[in-house]
Every structure is written in structure tokens, then in C-alpha cells.
Design brief:
Blueprint: H1 12-15, H2 52-70, E1 74-79, E2 85-87, E3 90-91, H3 98-104, E4 112-116, E5 120-125, H4 130-136, H5 142-149, E6 154-156, H6 160-168, E7 180-182, H7 192-199, E8 203-207, H8 219-228, E9 235-239, H9 241-249, H10 253-276, H11 283-296, E10 301-302, E11 307-310, E12 331-336, E13 338-340, E14 343-344, E15 347-352, H12 359-378, H13 385-403, E16 444-447, E17 450-452, H14 465-481, E18 485-487, E19 490-494, E20 499-501, H15 510-521
Parallel strand pairs: 1-8, 5-6, 8-9
Antiparallel strand pairs: 1-4, 2-3, 4-5, 6-7, 10-13, 11-12, 12-15, 13-14, 16-19, 17-18, 19-20
Length: about 525
């Protein structure tokens, strides 16, 4: 997936339809004896086993960093996320909001985390209901939620509204009796500084969205902020997004383990598709190999809708239909990434259906490959996404000029064939937080240049004398390369002195791809 993506077709139900086999995350599927002749396709290694103490320590450290960033007069409210309607009374599978999960490790709709001054977290948790569990499955007990999150002050979810009303009135609040589901016996004495700040209109309420802001994801937060601001209460609403953006930019070793597993699942999906593509007639048959692998390896979902486009469909950047024919002699572009424990891979390969690149296909592919190499060389601490994009773009320009697809490398002509950036941040979102930050060790980004010779590209250029001259000059090259689309995308992590390829196990060179397909199809 490339930058500025808008995910439109979120249909997880389809992803898992017609799939076979599922394995428990607690019974690793790979615990089998290696065969004497190991398969060509790389089998996904077992899921990482992370000690509960290590996970809890990391969660506590994250909450402490957020608390420190807010200071003694700040309160954070994080909602777990809202169910999304698929149609009528059918919902999409629930997915916790990223930042809520980042601080709690919880996947429970209807929950809310409040972080009070002094790094005191309070979890508002829906009380278990036998009736609800009969219909929709297990809900967390307070003890389970505490074990997963490390938060030990847990109140009934119905207490959130009276708690908020008390905060607005500058009063300490603690539920009574059975409304406290679990307690670490924290004191509210430390709230005095918060009330003092509120009396001076200097207290701060941190949310993921503010009133009047435009957000497709955080509409509940917007409504909450609007309601909060209807009457003076001494709290100024602040966006907490920048705090999480800075924190989540550099991935911890624990996070990298989870992300690597999502990538490993994606690599196996790619290789299974390569091995079987020649036997298929339609793109959806190739996509079925991806869906099967994701389910087989217990991925949570995909990180974004699969892109599987053959021939001219490979020149459409967000091609998601997978309804076109698969034809020998054409290239097939696959942009697919699994999600595991909230971390998404993002991997693209373009390969020949018949297993051999034609000379014209190889010429386009090699330019994109060389641009990837340039991006990797430019990536180091202190550099930026703009820097690596520039490095890759210069190679694309030189290659297009050599092929005759542009006449002036110093103009914007190259944008006819390469219309996106080379990189974006990767993590809990396929386009993760980070903004314009500089590279730091642990930051993960994508390396994905491409060239797309769309069959109608010249028809859609504005009718100007300059364009008429350009079209006439490049027409022979256009006819030679028409309908070829190539994107190569790898996931990379910044190290102390450069980068490491997280997707290095998936063949990338022309010769390696051809050799893999030949072996896999024997």
C-alpha cells in the first residue's frame, strides 16, 4: 500500500469465507518435524511467545510516558472503539482503537480508559452478562482485564458518566459497593493540583479528536468534546494524537516481533500465490490463496483490502475487485499484508504469470528495483520520508528517460507513470502515525516505488501543444510498454546506522523470482 490510501472495502467476513483450518495462538502450528526435503514455500515460523511480565512492563511504561507528557493538570480519556455496521444488524468484527489497545492490550467493546494525574489509570469495563455472552461470546472478567492490561482499578462501565460529571464539577469521585469491580485502593488525594488548575481554567482534557475537527474514525470523541465544551468547566480540550505519534514512531523489540510475524504470514501468502497462479483463470483464485494463508496462520485479518491485479489491472493503484482474468505472459501485481495483534504488514510483489519476465517487463521491473535500492541507501537516522522518496524518484526519472517514456527528467513528466510516493510509516496502521518526523532507530516504513503504464494514460492528458509534442515523442515507447504495471514494496526498520529489510525472505530480484517459481511449480 502506498501513501494517502483510503481503505474503502472493509469486509472481513469475505476474507475468512471458504477458508480451511485455524490454529490456536497458544498451540503453535509449526511445532512439526521438518521434512527431509523442505518445501520451496517458506512456512511461517511460530507466533512469538511474549512473557506476560514483559508485556505488562511495556504497557506500564507506555502509560507512564503519556502521563508525563500530559503533566499534573491533564486527564486522558480513551474509548475502546465503536462497532462498525456492515449492513442492517450485521456488524464488522470488532477491533479495538489502536491507542486504547496500545495502552491496555484489551479487545472489549464498551470499555474506556481514563488516565488521571500521577499516572493513575482507571478502566471502565462492561460487567459480564450471561445473556450477552450467550449471543456474542466471552467478556472479560475484571481479573482477566487486569491480567492483560496491568490496570487494577476497574470500575463498572456505567460509572463513567457520573465520574465525568464529577470531574466537570471539580470533585473527586469513587463508586460505591459493587460498582467497583476491582481496586488497587488508590487514593484521590493527588487530585488537588488538578482542581486548582481547573479553577484557573488551566486544566486539560486529552482526546483523540476535538470539537469541530474532521475525523472519520473518532466521531465519538468529537461528540464527547462537543458535549464537554457546552459549559465552562476549567478544562481545555487538547488532542493527544501528537503524543502517541511520537511514542509509536519507534517500535520496541516486542512490537517488532509482532510486526515481523504479520510480515512472515504475508510472505507465505505471496509465495503460495506465485506457486499456483499459472493454474488459475481469475484474479480471485489467486486472492483465495492469500485469504487461505491468513486464516491458516491465524492472522487477525488483513491490514487493508488485498490488491491482486493482472495485466492492465496492475496499473490501477487501488485495484481491489480481483475480478479480472489471469493470463500467461502478463504480470500480476499483489499488494497484500496480514494483520497480527494490531500490527500490519504491507508487502507488494509483481511477478510473471508464466514464470518468465519478457524483455519489456524486465526493463520496467529493473528500474523499480533499482529505485528501491536507492531508497534503502538513503535511509538512516536523521533522514526523512521526503529524503528517501527523492532518492528513489531520481532513479525512476533516469529509467523512464532511458526507456523513452519521458523526454525531460527535470520536468513533471514522470508523474504520468509514477504518481505516488515511495514510502509511508508502518505499524498499527498500514499508514501509521509519524507525520513529518525524522527517522529514528526502530521506526518502520515502506519502500515501494512503482511504474504504471496505463493503457489510457495518454488519452487523459490535457489537450495542449506541449502535451501533443510529448505524446508524439514517447508514443513508440508507450506502445512497447503499454499495460505493464510494476510495484515492489518492502517493509524496513531503521537501525543505528541504516536499515534492515524485514521482508528480505521474499524473493525480489528478477532471477530469484523466476527461480522460485520454477522450483515451486515443479
Amino acid at each position: 500500500m502506498f501513501s494517502s490510501r483510503s481503505i474503502r472495502k472493509v469486509i472481513p467476513v469475505v476474507l475468512f469465507a471458504l477458508l480451511l483450518g485455524t490454529q490456536s495462538r497458544f498451540s503453535p502450528y509449526a511445532a512439526t518435524k521438518e521434512p527431509a526435503n523442505p518445501p520451496v514455500i517458506r512456512i511461517t515460523p511460530p507466533a512469538p511467545k511474549i512473557a506476560g511480565s514483559d508485556r505488562l512492563a511495556e504497557l506500564a511504561g507506555r502509560r507512564a510516558r503519556v502521563s508525563q507528557a500530559m503533566g499534573a493538570k491533564g486527564v486522558l480519556v480513551l474509548f475502546s472503539g465503536e462497532p462498525r455496521v456492515y449492513a442492517n444488524d450485521v456488524d464488522y468484527p470488532f477491533r479495538s482503537e489502536n491507542n486504547f489497545y496500545y495502552l491496555t492490550n484489551l479487545k472489549q467493546t464498551g470499555s474506556t480508559l481514563v488516565l488521571l494525574p500521577g499516572n493513575w489509570p482507571v478502566l471502565f469495563l462492561p460487567r459480564r452478562s450471561p445473556t450477552a455472552e450467550t449471543w456474542t461470546g466471552h467478556m472479560y472478567s475484571p481479573e482477566e482485564a487486569a491480567e492483560l492490561s496491568g490496570v487494577r482499578e476497574i470500575w463498572d462501565a456505567t460509572e463513567f458518566t457520573p465520574f465525568i460529571d464529577a470531574v466537570k464539577s471539580h470533585k473527586s469521585y469513587r463508586p460505591k459497593g459493587e460498582r467497583i469491580l476491582l481496586s488497587a485502593a488508590h487514593t484521590t488525594a493527588g487530585w488537588a493540583d488538578l482542581w486548582a488548575a481547573a479553577e484557573k481554567n488551566e486544566a486539560e482534557l486529552y482526546l483523540l479528536a476535538t470539537a469541530g475537527s474532521e475525523s472519520k474514525e473518532y466521531r465519538r470523541e468529537q461528540r464527547f468534546a462537543e458535549e464537554w465544551g457546552k459549559a465552562p468547566n476549567g478544562f481545555n480540550v487538547r488532542r493527544v494524537g501528537p503524543v502517541f505519534s511520537e511514542m509509536r514512531l519507534s517500535k520496541s523489540p516486542l512490537e517488532l516481533q509482532l510486526l515481523q510475524h504479520a510480515i512472515d504470514i504475508s510472505i507465505e501468502a505471496h509465495e503460495r500465490a506465485w506457486a499456483n497462479a499459472a493454474k488459475t483463470k481469475w484474479e480471485y483464485e489467486v486472492d483465495a490463496e492469500v485469504a487461505y494463508t491468513f486464516k491458516l496462520r491465524n492472522a487477525d485479518n488483513w491490514g487493508y483490502p488485498d490488491i491482486v491485479g493482472c495485466g492492465p489491472n496492475a496499473t490501477t493503484l487501488h485495484y481491489e475487485e480481483s475480478q479480472g482474468p489471469v493470463k500467461s505472459g502478463q504480470l500480476l501485481l499483489m499488494d497484500v499484508g496480514a494483520e497480527y495483534e494490531h500490527y500490519s504488514a504491507d508487502v507488494t510483489r509483481t511477478f510473471p504469470v508464466n514464470g518468465k519476465f519478457s524483455p519489456a517487463q524486465a526493463e520496467i521491473y529493473q528500474i523499480v528495483y533499482d529505485a528501491q535500492e536507492a531508497v534503502a541507501r538513503a535511509a538512516r537516522p536523521g533522514a526523512s520520508l521526503a529524503d528517501v522518496n527523492q532518492a528513489g524518484t531520481e532513479v525512476i526519472k533516469d529509467g523512464l528517460l532511458k526507456l523513452g517514456l519521458i523526454t525531460d527528467r527535470n520536468s513533471m513528466q514522470y508523474r504520468v507513470w509514477f504518481m505516488h510516493g515511495t514510502s509511508h510509516w508502518l505499524g498499527m496502521n498500514v499508514h501509521d502515525v509519524g507525520g513529518s518526523s525524522k527517522f529514528v532507530p526502530g521506526a518502520v516504513f515502506t519502500n515501494e516505488p512503482g511504474i504504471y503504464v496505463r493503457p489510457d494514460a495518454l488519452d487523459n492528458l490535457p489537450n495542449t501543444p506541449e502535451n501533443e509534442k510529448f505524446i508524439a515523442a514517447i508514443r513508440p515507447a508507450f506502445e512497447k510498454y503499454k499495460s505493464i504495471g510494476v510495484r515492489i514494496e518492502d517493509d524496513m526498520v531503521i537501525t543505528s546506522d541504516g536499515v534492515r529489510w524485514l521482508t528480505e525472505a521474499l524473493p525480489r530480484k528478477i532471477s530469484d523470482i523466476e527461480a522460485f517459481i520454477a522450483r515451486a511449480r515443479r
